[in-house]
Design brief:
Elements (H helix, E strand, L loop, with lengths): L14 H14 L3 H33 L5 H4 L28
C-alpha cells in the first residue's frame, strides 16, 4: 500500500548548512532530502523529551510551594497559662515575657 504524499516543505537552507548536509548525503549515497528527513526524525523526539522534562520540573516546583493564605498567616495563638513557658521561645514564663501587658 502506497503512503499518501506528505505536505511539501519549501524553505532555503543557509549555504554552510546545505553544504554540510550535502556532504553527508554524498558520503552515504542518498539524497539531500533523505538526510534532512532523518535529521528531523532524530531531532523532534529529542525536543519533545526536553519539553516533557521541563514540564515535569515545573510541576514539581509548583507542588513544593507552600500556599500562603491569610488563614495560615493569622493562625490562632494557643492559650497559655501565666506560669507556663512563653510560646515565643524565649524560655521565660508567659507572665514575665509577652504576658506583661
Amino acid at each position: 500500500m502506497a503512503r499518501p504524499p506528505l505536505g511539501k516543505l519549501n524553505f532555503r537552507l543557509p549555504d554552510s548548512l546545505r553544504d554540510r548536509a550535502q556532504a553527508i548525503a554524498d558520503r552515504d549515497n542518498v539524497s539531500l532530502n533523505s538526510v534532512l528527513l532523518k535529521a528531523l526524525e532524530n531531532y523532534v523526539p529529542f525536543r519533545e523529551r526536553q519539553h516533557q522534562d521541563q514540564d515535569k520540573k515545573a510541576q514539581k516546583r509548583l507542588q513544593q510551594r507552600v500556599p500562603r493564605t491569610p488563614d495560615a498567616l493569622l493562625a490562632p495563638v494557643p492559650k497559655v497559662g501565666a506560669k507556663q513557658r512563653c510560646p515565643c521561645g524565649s524560655g521565660l514564663q508567659y507572665k514575665r515575657c509577652h504576658g506583661m501587658n
